[in-house]
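Question (not urgent): is this output format expected?
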Amino acid sequence: MNARVKQNVAVVGSPPVPAVRLRPPRDEDEAAFTTGHRAMGAEGFTFGLGYEPGKPWRTYLKELEDHRHGRNLPARHVPGTFLVAEVAGEIVGRTSIRFRLNDFLAERGGHVGYGVLPQHRRRGYATEILWQSLIIVRAAGVDRVLVTCDEDNAGSRAVIESCGGVLDSIVTVDGKPPVLRFWID
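Got this back:
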């Protein structure tokens, strides 16, 4: 376990970072969620894992619940949980937490994947989302956590390192952009 202790320290003259709350998506989140899914999709990032426009919302929520319990998993998937990040009642991002790794996740995906919606970036939310995700994955028994990011994503690299990530390797598969692999103890 990382000996580092996280502290919420306010810098004089800067506004406090509003509290981020991770929670499962709810019935009433459909409109905000689909808007976020479109916004992130425009950047090539999948916001709603397994979500497809037009899929009935309740069907999607049921799939997320099944996924959490390891039921009816699609190929290449492992049990995990998908949570939205909320600040003051508004969805600002999301996290996907996997409780074990398969070959793909061990190479490119890791235990935790997170994202912050474009209009909410550079406010400290990504760091808080990852920090809370680490607490959840560790509570599930994972002591050493793998987190990855694209090599050209300096913001995500800084977030991972600020949460204790130590660069392990850089992988390139099938001509895709290089991925940085970090372990957090």
